[in-house]
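Our preliminary data section would be incomplete without showing what the modeling component actually yields. Below, a chain of 266 amino acids is followed by its predicted structure, encoded as tokens that our downstream tools consume directly.
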Amino acid sequence: MNTLRRIYSVYGMVVFAITFLLLLPIFVITIEVPGLKKYGRMLNRVWAKFFFIMLFIRVKYQNRHHLKFSKQYIIVANHFSYLDIPALGLIPNDAVFIGKSSLGKLPLFGYMFRNLHIAVNRNSLRSRGETIFKTKEALDEGSSVVIFPEGGIIAQNPPEMGRFKDGAFKVAIEKQIPIIPVTLSYNHLILPDDGKLLLNYKNIKVVFHPPISVEGLAVKAAGELKERCYNIIQEQLCKDNPQPVAAEHPIPDTTNIKNLIIHENR
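Predicted structure:
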């Protein structure tokens, strides 16, 4: 089984690399020619769709009707796997992703990511400040923004999430942009963040929850908004990943009791 997983994983990496290199010249054009970046992000969607088709993985969207093509959103989702970005990259809206700075340092891919999306160094106060500025700039230009409010892949026991940070929710309130919580149900099972980069075959499930209006909210309400989104996503994760429940009244080990009775009857 591990051999098959390795073969499948190597195949996946080859597909990822070859398709990216084939599309790279077009990415360069959309980046270098002013006004074309949204078409580069559109190309991201084409790339993601082809990637999953080549992996024979079906991406199942639930409640996609909550996402209106003509509207702007701040999309917040759980983050357990490197598959999270391509899975959300299939949404039809023009969306700028906020990802960790290491993505922007990768050869060639980093050039594409840091120019079409936003790379943040979570350990740098200056970088976090610049990210907030760039996020607002993207919203002002009419794009939606995808944020993983855990601040990276930090969860120790998926499907239990790490705590959310405030940034996405403060920006949503300041810019009066509705928030859509999204649950990525199984990506941690398909490509776990365990350092092995081994794929498991399983279809992806993406659940869009109803948009949350921030109209009229003050920035001080960001904490409450954050907790509301956290609970919505975590509830769906628990629903889709039920944990085995221990027996309410486990059968006791009677071996010692029997031995004691036999010993007393001698």
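Strands lie at 59-62, 74-77, 95-100, 118-120, 144-147, 179-184, 204-208. The longest strand covers residues 95-100. Preliminary results of this kind motivate Aim 1 of the renewal.
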